[in-house]
Each structure stands twice: as structure tokens, then as C-alpha cells.
Amino acid sequence: LRRGLQRFEQVRLFTRHEVSTVEPSNAGGARLQVQDMARGQAQARRLEEQAQVEVVRRINVLVKRDPARFVDLWYTHHSANEVAGGRRITMRDGSTVPAGVLRNASMGTRAGHPDLVNYAPRTFRGRHWAGLALELKIEPNTLTDEQENYLMHLHRCGWLVEALSADDPAVLADQAWLLLVDYLGIAPEDYAPLMLRRGRRR
User: Are strands 127-129 and 122-124 parallel, antiparallel or unpaired?
Assistant: First the structure.
């Protein structure tokens, strides 16, 4: 009987050890994978912002040089539908959202709005367009459902829409810049010098 009890205790301790080490380890690994994915997406979003800032910097350079000549370029717009940090509000279902998100939504902000839009109508690539909408993505980030729906809606309304992607923010900025200036019909001698400083040619 004593040997049987000793054997039972050994099995119980072994089982307890397995449950306490193996199962939490698997759960912890899954949590780490989710955290790594979230960090990667956040880093990609920051790089997307860098690319967008660089495009706007180039816009500002040309507009400052000749406001009247580049007036259509000046009206390239970003709708700030992202809210970082700040006070959070608890919803009825227990989830929390930044207060700025609710404020923006109440003012008409829509999720999925493209990163950059230009309202100038142009004939481009053999077709007349009401405007240009650009979505910038750093790989491996892809379009959200809201972004895809927004681009599809604008396309149905006669807009030229493009989702651009690259693994480097400088390359992504160049892609967006080239499409924007080509769409507006801006001459290479005007836009190319802004790229040559970065060591890239069209």
C-alpha cells in the first residue's frame, strides 16, 4: 500500500509539473506571437507615416517656389482619421476606445479614408478622372476592409485609386510622389530634383 501511495504521488507530481510548465508555455508563446505581430504592424504604420510626411515635404517645396503654378498640387489632402493615445472611454460591451475616435466619428470621420487625396480632375492613362486617391502601405501591412471599401467607392465615383506598397519608406514615398506628379502633369525638371537629392532617379 505504501509503495502504491508513493507511485500515485509521483504520478500526481509529474502531472502537476506538466500542466504548470507545458500548457502555460504554449499559451505564452501564442501571446508572444500576437504581441510580435502587433509590434510589427505598429512599426510598419510609423514607416508609412514617414513616407507620407516625405511626400508632403516635397509638395511644400514646389508650392513655396511657385504657389500659383502648383496650386493643384497644394490641394493634396490627408484626413486625420488616426488617434494615438489620450483618454479612453468604456463602451457598453466593456471595450474601450480613445475619446478622440468618438469625437472624430461624430464629426464625420470615416475609417478607411485614403492617406492622400487630390481633388484636381485630370485625363490620365487615357481616361478622365475626378481625382486621385493614394493608400500607402509598408510591407507586410495590407489594406483593411474599410480601406478597400473606401477605394472601391471612390473608383465607382470616377476617381483614380492606387494602393502602393514597399518595404522601405523612402521607396514608398518615391512611388507616391511619381504617381502624384505624373497625374497632375508636373514636368520632370520640377519634381525630379527633389528625388535626386535622395540618390534615386525615375
Answer: antiparallel
Q: How would you class 120 by CB atoms within 10 Å of its CB: exposed for 0-12, middle for 13-18, buried for 19 or more?
A: middle
What are the C-alpha distances in Å from 5 to residues 2, 10, 12, 93, 174?
5, 9, 10, 50, 74
Residue 15: is its pLDDT beyond 70? Answer: no
What is the C-alpha separation between 75 and 111, in angstroms, rounded? Answer: 21
At residue 64, what is the residue type?
K
- Long-range Cβ pairs for the range 57-60 (8 Å, 24+): 58/173, 58/177, 58/191, 58/194
Q: What are phi and psi of 124, to 5 degrees?
A: -145, 135
Radius of gyration of the chain (CA): 26
CA 6 to CA 31: how far, in whole Å? 37
4-18, 31-45, 172-186 — which is least confidently predicted? Answer: 4-18
Task: State the pTM of this model.
Answer: 0.71
For residue range 95-139, what is the model confidence (pLDDT) as tens digits? 665 555 555 666 667 788 999 999 999 999 999 999 999 999 999
